[in-house]
Specification:
single chain, alpha/beta, five-stranded parallel beta sheet
Length: 121
């Protein structure tokens, strides 16, 4: 019995140590309301080609696929304020959010990304 308890405790420790902190999320509808009320740090992590197809007016840009993504992003951001991230569908911005969050930024991923934004607006 002692051996089973020991294994359980070790398993619990390793499972919890490996978990990454979840990135907060917001819908595009919620973002629209927020943007109408205040100025927020909005970061578009799509490629230049995608940006040419349209973007949210107040966004900063830093291509997630660029080698120097973190530097591009952080030069433009205030670490004391939340950062709202979006990409085409929400996947890349979620990954970008993990990177920034691990470096101490408070991040919020926009669910559905620009595709969803475009559908609703």
């Amino acid at each position: 019995m002692k051996k089973i308890t020991y294994i359980f405790v070790l398993s619990f420790f390793f499972i919890n140590c490996d978990k990454k902190q979840e990135v907060n999320t917001i819908t595009t509808s919620e973002l629209k309301v927020l943007l109408s009320k205040e100025k927020v740090q909005l970061l578009d992590v799509r490629t230049q080609k995608e940006i040419k197809e349209g973007f949210i007016e107040t966004a900063f840009f830093a291509n997630f696929y660029d080698e120097n993504f973190y530097t591009q992003a952080t030069v433009k951001l205030d670490k004391t304020k939340p950062v709202y991230l979006y990409c085409r569908s929400g996947n890349r911005s979620g990954k970008a959010g993990v990177i920034l969050q691990e470096k101490g930024y408070k991040v919020v991923n926009v669910l559905g990304g620009y595709n969803q934004w475009k559908q609703e607006n």
